[in-house]
What does this fold into?
Amino acid sequence: MNIIFLGPPGAGKGTQAQRICDELGIPQISTGDILRRAVKDETPVGLKAKEYMEAGKLVPDEILVEIIRDRLAQDDCKTGYILDGFPRTVPQAEALEKIADIDVVVELAVDDEALIRRLSGRRVCLKCGATYHVSTLGDKTTCDKCGETLIQRKDDNADTVKNRLEVYHNQTAPLISFYSGKGLLKSFDGMQDINAVYASIMQVLGNRA
Ligand code: AP5
Ligand code: MG
Ligand code: ZN
It folds into this structure.
């Protein structure tokens, strides 16, 4: 199954995609994770992307389309995948139609106030992509999955979060009607707790498998 996860920053795309990919045995393709790794490794893409990401703006479409084209051509994508954070603009969605057949678009809806709370307390593992929240971490400072030290993302500060939400509402939210018009959209209440969101998504995906 080829799946898109769509939703604002902090909606839980990464949290749910990682768990569901483990369950279904398919890769999680997070463009945010790919770009953060490129920035860390100072690759040509990373050097271009850094400024946009730190300002909470979208990295130009042509860079993202190229990244996705290369990634979807790899062998592990043959049995399906979850796209986490792509597409994020109508031109990206149109480019994707030429290279992939999408089966379902999972939309996670969460209100802005909750998103701000979630992002301000988020801690992440840059090595394996796992995501945590300070409210449940206690005094733990390392990743449960791989032992790496957890960090706070540079774009999780109040000003940048505000920009990211604006960018989502202006540039990414139009994809909701784009995919609903194609009959691919399944919307979920992302305000429920993590296990409840997981269960409702799996129920829908299970019925299609
Ligand atoms: P990206 O990394 O994709 O960031 P994002 O879309 O802003 O989404 P987040 O990763 O912030 O949120 P999430 O939905 O994954 O939430 P999470 O599960 O972590 O992109 C970063 C940047 O890269 C962009 O700003 C842009 O510059 C660039 N970029 C990436 N893709 C691009 C593209 N296609 N085009 C152009 N530029 C691109 O959860 C958040 C927190 O909430 C965690 O602490 C988690 O524990 C907690 N949480 C999760 N679910 C729940 C729940 N149900 N209840 C309570 N807490 C919860
Ligand atoms: Mg994410
Ligand atoms: Zn880790």
Remarks:
- The chain has a mean pLDDT of 96.
- Residues 28 and 82 are 5 Å apart (CA to CA).
